[in-house]
Amino acid sequence: MLWQGLGLLLLLASVRVSAEPIPELVFLSEHPVEQMPAGNLSGLARCDGHLLTLSDREDGNLHRLDTQNPIWRAQVEPFQTPEIPENHQLPWGMRAQSMLSGPVRGGQMDFEGIACDALGNRYLVSEAYASVLKITPDGQSHWLELPEALMPQARSRGLLRKHNALYEGIAVDPQGQRIWLAAEREQRGLLHIELKQEHWECPEGHCVLLFEAQAMPSGTAEASPAPDFSDLQLYQNKLFTLERQARQLCRRNLEEGTVERCWSFATTAQKENYRYPTPYGIAEALWLEEDTVLIGLDNNDHLRADGEARPIVWRFAAPAEGWMGTP
User: Fold this and answer.
1) Is the pTM of this model over 0.70?
2) For the Phytase-like domain, which residue ranges apply (predicted)?
């Protein structure tokens, strides 16, 4: 009952925040990405001064983006391709679904997010196997030993219960000692782990930072797409979440993951020539800096209304008051 009550309070808080006017980000430019043949751009991070991205259809490559011209070019950065992780926390049925769907979709691991620490290590989150891969600057890789309590705690709160709706974003602190993970949808939530004496643990025994009870739609013929998280970034000791269906990004505190401010990019996403033939949002990659924010689109092989087929990165100006300020 306590957790149910907490979930209700979080839901009500979310409703109050969403009822307030959300400022619109100022669109600056868009950048098609070439030489990324698998498409499906699913994450962004700046590592060692280079902007990196990845595709959820490729298991052994990252892509370094050359951003000097309006059309960005992807340069392959290969890494040691891992074996399927021995993740015994994932229920067998979900694991079997991932093993069967991977060869059909392309990309057995379904990497959905990327983050870096100050030493240049890359951290990739696999949605298919609910695991985190660490890649050293020289391309060697290994799966992190996640806490045994992580999956049970998440599932007990209603998270990570649907195939293809597991981890969708990752954030890492500069020291590589703390990791945050975004549970995508139905229900969505935020989880965190920390490294202590070379072992990943749940901080003070609790891995679930935030879980949101979903309000069931009523009086409609079709259910609206569920609220979701599609990427995550740690910036100036705050968590920033990309929220695909709401077409917004939000600043959240580190203590409870609760919303402090949100900014919308709906006006740009709903421009007639920028529309895709899908009822779902397709913004899946986030990289935020002092004066700008990049939002990457996973077009999932769909053609845009204007005929564009390449992955796209949109660039928006930071709000006048900055990412940490208030209006």
Assistant:
1) yes
2) 37-186
Asked if the structure places residue 326 within a domain, the reply is no
Structural contact between residues 248 and 240, judged by C-beta atoms closer than 8 angstroms: no
DSSP code, position 274? G
Residue with tokens 């100006």: 317
pLDDT, mean of each 10-residue run, the chain (327 residues): 46 49 96 91 95 94 96 95 76 74 72 96 94 93 94 93 88 98 93 95 95 60 73 97 96 96 96 91 95 94 92 97 89
Tokens of 261: 């401010």
Q: How many domains does the chain have?
A: 1
Report the alpha-carbon distance of residue 190 to residue 148 in Å, rounded.
Answer: 17
Q: Would residue 325 count as lying in a domain?
A: no
CATH at 264: 2.120.10
Q: Is residue 322 part of a domain?
A: no
| Cβ(45)–Cβ(116) below 8 Å | yes
Domain containing residue 203: 2-215+225-317
Give a yes or no: residue 198 inside a domain.
Answer: yes
Tokens of 308: 């564009």
Residue with tokens 């609220």: 227
Classify residue 181 as exposed, middle or buried by CB count within 10 Å of its CB (0-12, 13-18, 19+): buried
Q: Which residues contact 168 (CB under 8 A, 6 or more apart)?
A: 112, 113, 125, 127, 182, 183, 184, 185, 228, 229, 230, 231, 284
Name the amino acid, one letter, at 212.
E
- Pairing of β 111-116 and β 122-126: antiparallel
